[in-house]
Design a protein that fits this description.
Strand content: over 45%
Radius of gyration: 23 Å
Strand order of the largest sheet: 1-4-5-7-8-9-10-13-14-17-18-19-20-23
Distance between the termini: 62 Å
Oligomer: single chain
Helix content: under 10%
Structural class: mainly beta
Shape: elongated
Largest sheet: 14 strands, antiparallel, barrel
CATH superfamily: Outer membrane protein transport protein (OMPP1/FadL/TodX)
Length: 412
Amino acid sequence: MKKTQYSLLALSIALASQVHAAGFQVVEHSASGLGRAFSGDGAIGDNASEMSANAASMMLFDRAQFSGAVSYIDPEIDVKSNTYGDEANDIAPSQVVPAFYYVQPVNDKWAWGIGMFTDYGVSTDYPSDFSGGDMAGHTSLTTFKFNPNVAYRLNEQFSIGAGVNVTYAKAKLERNVGIAGSQLGVPSSTSLLKMEGDAFGYGWNVGALFELDKNNRFSASYRSDVKLKFKDGDFTDGTGLITGKQPGSTSNADLEIELPDILELSGFHQLNQQWAVHYSWQWTNYSKFSELKATSNACSDGTCFTKSESYSDNQRWSIGTTYAVNEQWLVRAGFAYDEQAGKATLSIPDTDRYWYTAGLTYLWTQDLSLDAGFAYIDGKSGNFTETGLAGKQEFHSSGPAYIGAIQLNYAF
């Protein structure tokens, strides 16, 4: 067997796609942000979740605040093999994504805060007898990010902030032989390989906030790349064809992956007592994601698989508005265009996406508020090819995704 035929293992173990954001990024950090398509992130300062976009936004608070959010993600992505005619429906299971934030002003000059949220992850799940089983199967990735931050006000208009983050990632992968089983004389659902592993990665972030006046603000932030090293993961060779060992034998395998850095610019403008507009531009450095390689002493020359990736830097544009109905109710809406980052694969059926969002805030008391948001993501359908054990196959992916979120905010 050629090593490159198993390269999708490296891809899938580290980068299961949410299939609602370009590449493999998760942007669902708050319900308030979801309602405006995350436009204005880091410049609005309406609740503590803003620190996930820009640490300097903590200087917009004069009291301590807690925000807790839960997002429910329901992709409805279908994939069909144009080569063999079989279909896989709802390949991305629904997921629940929590997030928590706390901001504590110290005085007029300093503030600190802690965020706990996720930037990457979820899963794809294909039928065990799918023709492209060696390129699809089951993939899951869970990440959790712990992000302490500090902010400092330079003067009445400029504030800066910075933080560090610790990311924990846990991944699981299962693959079957697929249509190639007819060549090997085994059922297509026969296990080809399994892999499980976890890893810690470390990064940092910086941000700046410029307040032209109380009604007009601009935000700039940068989040560094994060290197994940999956060391001594459990690699099970279902057929014995990869390691040359007995079928079902388990060995240790290593994989390193670099999650890309992100730059974001945002603006917020309060037009009058009722209307506000906000916008953002985000750039993700996906072009550095150029190769995947997994190694193990159990494989010949130490390399189990390697693959060159075809990714380009991604841009995301968003715009939105907020309207104050009265002293208790706010409503918001947004639109975003998220351009495709990489060549589509079964594990990451990447495509251009259009976000249509709406949300609201209910101010229960002066201290307590509740946010809700909803998004419909229209992903562009299309064809793509992948090469597996049975040679090159053509696939077609299509389907939207739906996201709902609620959030509780309390000021102390």
